[in-house]
Amino acid sequence: MSPANDEATEVLEDRSVASLLERGRTLSTPLLKQAVARLAAPMDAVAAYHFGWIDADGRPAHGDGGKAVRPALALLSAEAAGAAPEVGVPGAVAVELVHNFSLLHDDLMDGDEQRRHRDTVWKVHGPAQAILVGDALFALANEVLLELGTVEGARALRRLTVAARKLIDGQAQDISYEHRDRVTVEECLEMEGNKTGALLACAVSVGAVLGGADDTVADALEDYGHHLGLAFQAVDDLLGIWGEPATTGKQTWSDLRQRKKSLPVVAALAAGGEASEELARLLAADAEETENGDLDEAEFAHRAALIEKAGGREWTSEEARRQHATAIEALHRVDMPEQVRRNLVALADFVVVREK
């Protein structure tokens, strides 16, 4: 195949993924807005700001509402079970509500002042509103599935509840690791499997459950989502250190500023060698301080260089590819329309090659 044809193929694949993401966003947004409208003032407006529907002054806006990977997966999940994509919409909305509950709380706990190129909710509306609106979104997620009044809705809610508990476990692990100078690769993968993998796994099984699929099918799709989540988080960890702020919407060296024990850091510490040992000494010194002062840009750049020299960046890139391959293998256990399978593979590819 000529280079020109290679380029044309890539464009077609990009359009396919873009259309899947847009379909998920378009079909789920009306029900999502209906759910948020139930909230008492000012929580309804705070939630609308978080989702990018209004600006800080309450004027209509068209902010970046995120990649919408989870809604896209929920609709494909329904199609994998032989149902119409619309069947997966309540599941897509419920998962998106839980995801955004976690973002509101995470931003506050991590002290993040920017998300999607705008000030975070706690920065604009205060910590109390960030907590309350996050809690409210979690409650709404349960309502959306319970109101279906079906056996499938109850089965879907069970999976969502388990995923939410694992997500919270993962956040607790993430916070505890910030205060340790050593975390194993296995511990880091377990944490990321909980924090990111669990909800993606739910997203790609919940639509199938609503479409009447049995647990064998739903579990295989969940395995795909779990490993996709680990690939997703591995890429996030790379972007958290080396991502471009103009693209990611976060500060330079974002994860290093927060002393996160992300995969590149943990892998670098486990590698041994001169760069690894110097990084370990710096992090141990951080852990001994009762209050970490802000480091300058040169120090963050130095730490990023140590991580790369120790092999943490390359190992994490390889891990993203390994988890991607494992996710694709899980799809072989499900008898589904071939176009749906291709779309799930395309979304998995997108997760691994994204830049934000």
Automatic annotation (TrEMBL):
Coiled coil: none annotated. Gene3D superfamilies: Farnesyl Diphosphate Synthase. It holds the Pfam family polyprenyl_synt. Keywords: Magnesium, Metal-binding, Transferase. This is Polyprenyl synthetase family protein. Signal peptide: none annotated. Belongs to the FPP/GGPP synthase family.
